[in-house]
Amino acid sequence: MNYKKYRIPLMVIILTSGILLGTQIQKALAGDNLFENVKKFNDVLTLTQKFYVEDVNTDKLVESAINGMLNELDPHSVYIPAKQMQAVEEEFRGDFEGVGIEFQVVNDTLTVVSPITGGPSEILGILAGDRIVKIDDKDCIGITNDDVRKKLRGKAGSKVKVLVLRIGVKDPMEYEITRDKIPLFSVDTHIMLDKQTGYVSVSRFAEKTTEELQSALNDLQSKGMKQLVLDLRNNPGGYLNQAVQIADLFIDGNKKIVYTRGRRKDFDEDFNASVTSPFENVPIIVLVNRGSASASEIVSGAVQDWDRGLVVGETTFGKGLVQRQFPLSDGSSLRLTIADYFTPSGRLIQRKYKDKDKKDYYMENMDRQDESDGENLEHKIELDSLHQKSKTENDSLHPTFKTSKGRIVYGGGGITPDYFVKSEKLTDYSSNLIRKNTFYLFALNYIDRHGSDIKNTFGDNLAKFISSFELSDTDMKSFIEFSKGKDVKFVEKDFDTEKDYIRARLKATIARNYWKNEGWYSSLIPMDKQVKKALSLFGKAKELANIK
User: Fold this and answer.
1) pLDDT tens digit sequence for 417-430
2) Cys-Cys crosslink for 94: which of 206, 283, 305, 445, Cβ 3.0 to 4.6 Å?
């Protein structure tokens, strides 16, 4: 028999059969008509593009469809368009390339708020308060924030010229800045609160956060730190591995820090302490609030579950989901929830999100009314009087667990602190002052007039500034009048309630001009009642952790 004449038809039959069989197997494995649904979507998109009454932007339609699909999942699975990916990557990588300034456009003029530590602008001597009036010989009065980034950011090694006006200096100064990698720090500041208490504020968990924190802790220890306040308030989280490494700095042995469980077994992971750190026996108090989420809750949950220290502040956000970022072909990305994470005691701290839209999910956290200041070491959760939950409902929403010493803790709704201390809620007047940027604008004006006196009186001595500098009543009246000119209506009752805070924030804004974040935090912390409470609790923190 001549098999050659049947070869091509036979190959076609085999290939077709294989494709059909493969398709059917894939359909069976998908189990939810995945391929029919993909085909349906493609048909709708094609028909819309071909027959709709007006021209359509298919890219926009597809992105809208993706966002609509993700709205059916949890609130933390998101689509990130390609144009936003650079900023997202910079934030988590912890650097970008540019000249290294924090800036504001004030009265149409590009104004340096602060040169970034270690960046090329700081090295050249550009100062806070400098006004940049030309970029590469072109006037930049009236420049927008986006244009500032476009003109001043660029590849490391490239150059840009800026013309600077400085108060007290007669002639403009020209700088040629060589762009470089600019660090984005996640440790906002580290300072000594007294002779033995260190304080560190961590704003997010990025690629280099553990490295930054270790450096800060080493510096504080060299200055005599014997106990630590770790501030994770308003820290939205970040990398899981950074949360594990940071918790590991304080937790000894091979103790579990966190574990994840997903629908797919390959996303199940256990993370244990593995390194020996000199900070494992340092008494610690962690500050949290309703803006502390994700990685912040992993660290505070591990500290609490192992009775390693105390958690002070407000119940945290309640985000117990792990996301993985999947790059897409056009440079965009899908950040998809792949697992739940659990604290060492077994707590899932994720708040309920099903049957809620995203806006309600986020807003309910800010509107929470069920906490009042006081000790909560046994973690007795009161019923929410606003919703009148039954005991059975409350128990199902907040299942109980036990710490290493048998204290009751709860899951299903964030990390509940050992001591509730509510954040101060600002009056409408103070909120409007902040919203209208009046603190910075007035401080800039004040420094223009009194900067030489401040420099001559305090030099580089922040401690002297903190103890001696005060804004006068005349200064405060000037601030009120200045704010009226910025469309902030004066409310005498609100001002009387918060005048100490307003005065302290103005002082902090001035201090930041000379001492950056260290000046800001050092000025405001004496007004911070959550920090004050933490300082009073180290005796109990030591007792709980068996530290002598």
Assistant:
1) 999 999 888 999 99
2) 206
- Cβ neighbours around 453 below 10 Å, total: 9
| Same domain assignment for residues 237 and 308 | yes
Tokens of 351: 């708040």
Indicate if 397 and 379 belong to the same structural domain.
yes
Q: Both 148 and 221 in a single domain?
A: no
Enumerate the active-site residues.
Answer: 294, 305, 319
Which CATH number is 389's domain given?
3.90.226.10
Q: Is the four-CA dihedral 356, 359, 365, 368 of positive or negative sign?
A: negative
- Residue 434: pLDDT band (50, 70, 90) is very high
* DSSP characters over 124-183: HT--TT-EEEEETTEE-TT--HHHHHHHH---TT-EEEEEEE-TT-SS-EEEEEE-EEEE
Q: How far is CA 189 from CA 100, 129, 185, 502, in A?
A: 18, 21, 9, 22
Please, which residues have CB within 8 angstroms of residue 64's CB and are 6 or more apart in sequence? none
Does a structural domain hold residue 28? no
CA-CA distances (angstroms) from residue 2 to 5, 6, 184? 6, 8, 74
Measured CA to CA, the distance from residue 347 to residue 342 in angstroms comes to 5
Q: How big is the CA angle at 74 (ends 59 and 28), to the nearest 5 degrees?
A: 75
Does 21 have pLDDT greater than 50? no
Say whether 523 sits in a helix, a strand or coil: helix
- The pLDDT value given to residue 7: 47
Specify whether 289 is located in the same domain as 419: yes
Residues 214 and 363 both lie in one domain: yes
CA 291 from chain center: how many Å? 9
Helix and strand counts by DSSP (H, E) for the chain: 18, 22
| Residue 369 pLDDT class (50, 70, 90 cuts) | low
pLDDT at 338: 95
Residues 489 and 347 in one domain: no
Question: Tens digits of per-residue pLDDT, 377-412?
Answer: 654 434 333 333 434 344 556 788 999 999 999 888
When pLDDT is cut at 50, 70 and 90, the band that residue 374 belongs to is low
Length of the chain: 548
In a domain, 13, yes or no: no
Task: Quick: pLDDT tens for 137-174.
Answer: 999 999 998 899 899 999 999 999 999 999 888 899 99
| Whether residue 513 sits in one domain with residue 392 | no
The pair phi, psi for residue 256, each rounded to 5°, is -70, 140
The answer to whether position 317 is within a domain reads yes
- Residue 17 placed within a domain: no
List the domain range (segments joined by +) for residue 329: 187-423
Last residue of a domain, one of 391, 407, 423: 423
Q: Are residues 462 and 526 in the same domain?
A: yes
